[in-house]
Give the backbone structure.
Amino acid sequence: MIDTHAHLDACAEPPEELLRRAREAGVSRVLTVGTTIEGGRAALALCERHDGVHAILGIHPHEAGADHDLTELRGLLEHERAVAVGETGLDFFRDYAPRDRQRDLFARQLELAAKLGKPVVIHNRAADAEVLDALSAFDGEVVLHCFSYPGVLREALDRGYYVSFAGNVTYKNALELRVAASQVPAERILAETDSPYLAPEPRRGRPNEPAAVVRTLEELARVRGEDPARLGTQIDENAARVFGLP
């Protein structure tokens, strides 16, 4: 099993302990996310210390208010353990950075991903139409991280995007999200924790961790009427394909 999106640097517990519990739960691979240049360096350092850990590197839209020279990000992305650009996108819900700065940073990271031939991992909150419009000219692979906007599912699937579900798919009020999870083709579905955020039921309210992706997998399998082990194998295959994992 794989956790395709975790912020190990944001977790309170040491990565070594989190990864140990993940392995005990059957989670052998984790993609850790760096959302700043400094965070990207830390993510790669983790990758170099631990087998089964790869990195997603980018500048989060919350950071768009500052100036960013993407030359250094490009250098980090050329590391053999860097598998995708992200998370990048737009966040018009929190609005922690001016929207025009978010748009510019998003466009520059899409351009960088295209030049490097890497997939992009997309953060989208309250910006559905603009995110889809920005992605329309991107020819590479797209992963919709922490999918929570079912209204765009059909267009996303028509474009061949990968759809990744986190622990919020287990929440009692997430009926529309579970319906969406049941509609994603087997070859396009992914699972993640977004650790330390969005812990699934019944551990909601506590810090999330990579081991808990097993609970999200169980819920995805339930709503899809599939065997969890078989779905886990399918998700592993999907992740290997889109992220170029060995």
